[in-house]
TrEMBL record:
Signal peptide as annotated in the record: none
Stored PROSITE patterns: SAP
Keyword entries, A-Z: Cytoplasm, Exonuclease, Hydrolase, Nuclease, RNA-mediated gene silencing
One of the record's GO molecular function terms: 3'-5'-RNA exonuclease activity
UniProt keyword Hydrolase present: yes
Pfam families to which the protein is assigned, alphabetical: RNase_T
Protein name (record): SAP domain-containing protein
Amino acid composition bias (Basic and acidic residues), ranges on this chain: 382-413
Cell compartment(s), UniProt: Cytoplasm
GO biological process: regulatory ncRNA-mediated gene silencing
Region described as Disordered: 46-74, 122-142, 378-454
GO cellular component labels: cytoplasm
Length: 454
């Protein structure tokens, strides 16, 4: 059993490492360092995934406090989280490809999914759409993932309060909608009241809940931008926006890639019994290696929300694309579909302490935006750090990308491992695990800002 395997040693021989990988049904090709890291990753993944014996009693045990979460969490059946906050903001926008732009959030929707008992009277098991749109059951835990509530608010921008025609045409959000809406700090008061009403917040941390987003951009980029433009009083960075989260794009790719791999192995090895990996439960937190993601063996399983719906055979996108509420609702449909596969729903990304939040060169003191000055090459004190300097736009146009100049470093932690990559201004994101291009789905952001996503 993998749970009983010793921690791989660097002193192990190549044959010993390959033997250990072969027992787990893993790739045995590569140099010694590669083999050791592959086996070590499998070891840590096995230690972090409860065995069937451990899972049976998990519902009555209190899980240890996570690195970022303050309160302790309980296991919900065989799932580590009880609640899922499907979340997709819309921001001020016009055509262009400048990821530095000070986007302001203008729509903030959250669709709440929770595990409920399978025989819950509130679960409509007779509805034709309930199995794919509003609820999902896991046979092993006899629970269902159900859409239980929605938070929705438009948000009034304050730095550039007037919406452009492009933005309105793209999102369907009109000037009247935002003029009568609360500002971002006012909206957060309503959000926190809603979170507290569902018992999802304790000491400003999420409790037994996980954000679910279509990519990393909403939490990683738009929230810190908005908190600088519209600082809270007293100043703070809400801790419920930090910690682990689920990137639904990566989750779908992980689950479908693993299903495809297992099916292909069974097809090409009909006489072989299932190996340990084939018998293990698929989890959304598993990290796909570059070879697995871009090896060219089978579909890539990475796409926009409509493409993910198609891959999961859920039909067409419900509602209006680039409506934050409809985007969040369709993300919820995708998560419910994964739950129907009895997948272990766990985080695949993490946002660390707010002091590590991303910074942009137009950020002066709190609440002050010096976009025009930076565009003219006379930006704030941040220029002294060499992040952006005079003439940087010309360099961008020429396609020159140097470290610390036109490149924002992205830090994400997946399965306890930090993956450092870059998000480039030319619309292409790269990381140590592969290349993410804008054509997989690009949502245009404000001014000259571009939001990638749905």
């Amino acid at each position: 059993m993998i749970a009983d395997m010793p921690k791989p040693s660097k002193k192990a021989t190549v044959d010993e490492l390959r033997g250990g990988l072969a027992k787990l049904g893993l790739d045995t090709k590569g140099k010694k360092e590669t083999l050791w890291r592959r086996l070590l990753t499998a070891f840590h993944r096995a230690k972090s995934t409860p065995s069937p014996e451990t899972e049976a009693g998990a519902a009555s045990q209190v899980e240890k406090t996570q690195e970022v979460h303050g309160p302790t969490r309980k296991k919900w059946g065989k799932q580590p989280y009880r609640s899922f906050l499907c979340f997709d903001v819309e921001a001020t926008c016009s055509g262009g490809k400048d990821f530095h732009y000070p986007n302001e959030i203008i729509e903030f929707p959250v669709v709440l999914l929770q595990w409920v008992e399978a025989d819950d009277d509130d679960v409509d098991t007779t509805s034709p759409s309930s199995s794919t749109s509003d609820t999902a059951s896991t046979s092993s835990s006899r629970k269902r993932l159900k859409r239980v509530d929605t938070f929705h608010s438009y948000v009034r921008p304050t730095w550039r309060p007037e919406l452009g025609e492009f933005c309105t045409n793209l999102t369907g959000i009109t000037q009247d909608m935002v003029d009568s809406a609360p500002t971002f700090p006012e909206m957060l008061v309503q959000l926190e009241k809603w979170l507290d009403g569902h018992g999802l917040r304790d000491d400003d941390y999420l409790i037994d809940a996980l954000w679910v987003t279509d990519g990393p951009w909403d939490l990683r980029d738009f929230i810190p931008k908005q908190l600088h433009i519209s600082p809270l009083s007293p100043p703070r960075y809400p801790r419920y926006f930090l910690g682990p989260y689920l990137n639904i794009k990566q989750a779908v790719q992980t689950v479908l890639s693993e299903e495809y791999r297992r099916a292909e192995y069974a097809r090409t090895h009909p006489d072989n019994p299932p190996n340990q990996r084939a018998l293990s439960r698929i989890g959304t937190g598993r990290y796909l290696s570059r070879a697995e993601r871009e090896g060219g063996k089978g579909p890539r399983f990475y796409g926009t929300i409509p493409q993910m719906l198609e891959m999961l055979q859920l039909g067409e996108f419900e509602g209006r694309r680039h409506s934050g509420l409809d985007d969040a609702g369709n993300v919820a449909r995708i998560l419910i579909a994964l739950a129907e596969k009895d997948v272990l729903i766990e985080p695949n990304g993490r946002l660390h302490h707010h002091k590590n939040a991303r910074k942009w060169p137009w950020m002066a003191e709190r609440g002050v935006v010096v976009w025009e000055e930076w565009m003219r090459g006379v930006g704030p004190a941040g220029d002294k750090d060499g992040k952006e300097g005079e003439g940087s736009q010309d360099k961008d146009k020429a396609g020159e990308e140097k470290e610390g100049e036109g490149v924002a470093v992205v830090e994400e932690r997946i399965e306890g491992e930090e993956v450092v990559g870059t998000l480039r201004e030319n619309g292409e994101g790269t990381s140590s695990s592969g290349t993410r291009r804008a054509e997989t789905g690009m949502r245009v952001g404000t001014g000259t800002g571009t939001r990638m996503g749905t």
